[in-house]
Design goal:
Structural class: alpha/beta
Distance between the termini: 40 Å
Largest sheet: 8 strands, parallel
Strand content: 5-15%
CATH superfamily: Monomethylamine methyltransferase MtmB
Shape: globular
Mean pLDDT: 85
Strand order of the largest sheet: 9-5-3-15-14-13-12-10
Number of domains: 1
CATH architecture: Alpha-Beta Barrel
Number of helices: 15
Helix content: 40-55%
Number of strands: 17
CATH class: Alpha Beta
Low-confidence stretches: 95-101, 280-286
């Protein structure tokens, strides 16, 4: 089992003191040294690395970094270092999935298709479209878990943390998500609310088939006392604890250094907290940023897969629903996740325009159809196909404003508009001409 909360608190409280600036210097220096020592170097022309030896070196580098740098508590300015024996022991204990995901692990180049998570995960949603938007996802086939969004208001009143609106809004989110699934006969699908303050969770635990998660991030190998409070709560309630990462390339080093730090984060999270890791690495709509992040995503998932750790990738794009650009980017990320051994992908894309309301159930459908259609292809095949998709994506118009849900779906029937469905089918055909294979979602309803 992971380290018990009381023991972890006591050890962090007695660990040697260090300023945060000195910890940052230590992390940057060690990460660069270790990355170079293991011969890990970003290759711009390589989107999906196929060298298993490189994958193993990335794991060794992340492991070494976790050992040498440890975990930093920002509140008491103390640095906790675990021994190799402790990390090995905890990783062995955590090798059995304890997180409640109940989804199959996948290998690199696995012929099994991805699992598919649907819903506007963590996105801010207007109250008037919350239910129909969630129905647009719920009615799609193949949903393993239903990740829901965040209400902006409750009965027209803005939701604020620490007020009654926080409790009322969170409960309404789960009730409407449950209704969305019930309306389409999917009572069995598990609802996963967006992470919230642990004091709010008891107010939704009576609603059937809801599985709470808590997002306990270790950004740059740092925690706070709030993080330890959250861990204590999840442990006491038998909830699963996930970690998320949005690393910033350039903060401590280039793509290769960022990758090694992310692996160290995942490793320590698994060893200390016993949880899973969601690698949701964002890439802005810029040619200089996209390929490095795709490279990081692929290697991160491959490392996790080889170490029997969960790898869940979030799909990111700065495009909006209702555009070809978003559809191509979603397919690109889905294929990369599949061949790299990720366990599942979370849709929809969660870039800037999606946060402004530009997302819909059809975004999930394209991921589902591509994930099934391309299941079984290899990293080598993907490395030849993905550059073609990237080039095709770059030719698509970059949106200057979001296409809102009500602009691409009929709110009365909760079906895509003729224009949106037409663009969807047209873009699919163009991707098929490049070599992408799609399943037909209608065959799985």
């Amino acid at each position: 089992m992971p380290i018990e909360p009381l023991e972890l608190y006591q050890r962090i409280s007695k660990a040697p003191r260090m300023s945060e600036m000195n910890f940052d210097r230590l992390l940057a220096t060690k990460a660069k040294e270790i990355t170079a020592r293991h011969g890990i170097e970003y290759e711009p022309a390589e989107i999906v690395p196929t060298d298993d030896a490189l994958v193993d070196e990335v794991w060794k580098a992340g492991y070494e970094l976790a050992l040498e740098v440890g975990l930093y508590c920002k509140d008491n300015r103390r640095r906790l270092v675990l021994s190799e024996q402790e990390i090995e022991r905890e990783l062995r204990k955590a090798s059995v999935l304890l997180t409640g995901h109940e989804l199959p692990l996948r290998g690199i180049d696995d012929k099994k298709p991805l699992s598919f998570d649907a819903g506007p995960s963590c996105l801010p949603i207007r109250e008037d479209i919350f239910l129909p938007l969630h129905i647009s996802y719920a009615q799609e086939p193949g949903i393993a878990r239903f990740y829901i969004g965040n209400l902006l208001t409750y009965r027209g009143v803005p939701i604020e943390v620490g007020t009654p609106t926080e409790i009322l809004g969170k409960r309404q989110e789960v009730i409407w998500a449950r209704e969305a699934l019930d309306r389409v006969g999917k009572q069995h699908v598990v609802i996963i609310p967006s992470p919230d303050r642990f004091l709010i969770q008891p107010h939704t635990m009576d609603i059937p088939n809801v599985r709470h998660k808590d997002l306990l991030a270790l950004p740059h190998l740092k925690v706070t006392m709030d993080s330890l409070m959250l861990y204590t709560y999840t442990k006491s309630r038998g909830l699963y604890c996930a970690a998320g990462s949005d690393p910033m390339i350039g903060l401590y080093g280039g793509p290769d250094v960022t990758l090694v730090i992310s692996v160290a984060e995942a490793l320590l999270h698994r060893a200390i907290f016993g949880g899973s890791f969601i690698g949701a690495f964002i890439w802005p709509d810029h040619k200089l940023c996209r390929n490095p992040i795709l490279w990081i995503n692929s290697l991160f998932a491959q490392v996790c897969s080889r170490q029997k750790m969960e790898a869940i990738l979030g799909i990111r794009t700065e495009a909006t629903t209702g555009t070809s650009r978003a559809l191509v980017d979603i397919v690109l990320e889905t294929i990369l996740s599949s061949v790299s051994g990720a366990m599942s992908v979370i849709g929809p894309p969660t870039g800037y325009w999606a946060r402004c309301g530009g997302n819909s159930g059809l975004d999930y459908r394209i991921s589902f159809e591509a994930g099934l259609g391309m299941a079984g292809i290899t990293r080598k095949e993907a490395s030849e196909l993905l550059p073609l998709l990237i080039a095709f994506s770059d030719k698509q118009e970059i949106p200057t404003k979001p296409v809102l849900f009500e602009e691409c779906y009929d709110l009365a029937t909760i079906q895509p508009t003729r224009e949106w469905l037409g663009l969807y089918n047209k873009t699919k055909k163009e991707m098929q001409s490049i070599g992408v294979k799609f399943a037909d979602a209608e065959d799985y309803r």
